[in-house]
Structures are given as structure tokens and as C-alpha cells.
């Protein structure tokens, strides 16, 4: 049996019709948008039965004007069949600080660091994750820098928590205005 991304979508639609929110095909790429509660079950089927044995990445997209606010995006690859599939899960109600998605580390152990990165930078928690803690930001950091409501110039913090913003020593080729730190602006 030849497995393609299109046949994968048909198989998932037939086996898990209650799990699918929508299916999108754009430029010959297939995307399945799933309900969060079915994510682990569908992923287990994709890996075991359809040989999507590589989780390329897990990331998120912030849509602050939309409810649900976040898309958690999974890029899967079937090496034996040479096909690519994208899964999305939409989470985040209004004013929900830490929306939750089930962890897929039990299916693809490599999801561990991807999920930690999404947790750190977007604030999305992964239930049943074996070690969900910050990966890039300091442990006591309270905000999530890849959310679109994060201040572009950062926060004014006392030393030593100045956020790693280093002053420019040289003119980067755009004039005197940019010889400053990222925290302070010169008039």
C-alpha cells in the first residue's frame, strides 16, 4: 500500500471523523486540524499504522484576535513513504494564561525539547510532559516572548536581569540613532 499525505488525510478522516475540525490543502501540502483531546490517539495511529516515524518540529502561532488564540503545529514525516503531514491543534480561550495540549513525548520522545520550547516562549502547557520547565528563558521569568502582546522593547528590569540586551559598540551602518541598547531609546 502506497501512503501519501492525501491518503493519510482520507484514512484519518475515516478512522477519526469526530477528531477533525477541518482539513486544508494548500500548495500540495496537507494539514489536519484536530480537537486537542484526540491528538495523542491520532498521533499514535499515524506513527504505528502509517509510519510517520519522524516528528520534525512542534511550534505554535499566536492569533491574539482569534478564539482559540493559539495553533500548536506538528510537522510529521514518513521516511519510508517520503511524505509530509502537518497537524494543528487550536487552544486558548480569552484571558487563559496557560492553555493545555496533551504531550506527544510518549509517541515521539524527541517532542520533549520542542514542547519545552513552546511552553517557554508561548506559555502553552503540555499535559503529561515528563519535564516541562523553561528551556531558553530564566526559570523565574513570568512572561512568554513569542506572544504577540509581548512588549517589543522588552521590560525594564533591575540588574542582573536585564535580559541579555547588549549595547551596540559600533555603528551598524544606519547612523547614530542605533548606537544604543535595546532597552533605552535616545531622543
UniProtKB/TrEMBL annotation:
Residues 33-155 form the NADH:ubiquinone oxidoreductase 30kDa subunit domain. It is an enzyme of class 7 (translocase). Its main location: membrane. It is a peripheral membrane protein. It catalyses: a quinone + NADH + 5 H(+)(in) = a quinol + NAD(+) + 4 H(+)(out). Keywords: Cell membrane, Membrane, NAD, Quinone, Translocase, Transport, Ubiquinone. It comes from the Bacteria. NDH-1 shuttles electrons from NADH, via FMN and iron-sulfur (Fe-S) centers, to quinones in the respiratory chain. The immediate electron acceptor for the enzyme in this species is believed to be ubiquinone. Couples the redox reaction to proton translocation (for every two electrons transferred, four hydrogen ions are translocated across the cytoplasmic membrane), and thus conserves the redox energy in a proton gradient. NDH-1 is composed of 14 different subunits. Subunits NuoB, C, D, E, F, and G constitute the peripheral sector of the complex. This is NADH-quinone oxidoreductase subunit C. It comes from Dictyobacter kobayashii.
Amino acid at each position: 500500500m502506497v501512503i501519501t499525505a492525501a491518503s493519510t488525510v482520507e484514512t484519518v478522516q475515516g478512522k477519526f471523523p469526530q477528531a477533525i475540525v477541518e482539513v486544508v490543502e494548500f500548495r500540495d501540502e496537507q494539514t489536519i486540524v484536530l480537537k486537542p483531546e484526540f491528538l495523542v490517539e491520532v498521533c499514535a495511529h499515524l506513527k504505528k499504522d502509517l509510519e510517520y516515524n519522524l516528528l520534525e518540529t512542534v511550534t505554535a502561532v499566536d492569533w491574539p484576535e482569534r478564539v482559540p488564540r493559539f495553533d500548536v503545529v506538528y510537522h510529521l514525516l514518513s521516511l519510508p513513504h517520503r511524505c509530509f503531514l502537518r497537524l494543528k491543534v487550536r487552544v486558548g480561550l480569552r484571558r487563559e494564561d496557560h492553555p493545555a495540549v496533551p504531550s506527544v513525548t510518549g509517541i515521539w520522545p524527541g517532542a520533549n525539547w520542542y514542547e519545552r520550547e513552546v511552553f517557554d516562549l508561548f506559555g502553552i502547557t503540555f499535559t503529561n510532559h515528563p519535564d516541562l520547565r523553561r528551556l531558553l528563558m530564566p526559570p523565574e521569568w513570568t512572561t512568554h516572548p513569542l506572544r504577540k502582546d509581548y512588549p517589543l522593547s522588552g521590560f525594564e528590569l533591575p540588574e542582573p536581569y536585564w535580559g541579555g540586551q547588549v549595547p551596540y559598540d559600533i555603528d551598524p551602518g544606519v547612523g547614530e540613532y542605533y548606537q544604543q541598547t535595546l532597552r533605552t531609546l535616545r531622543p
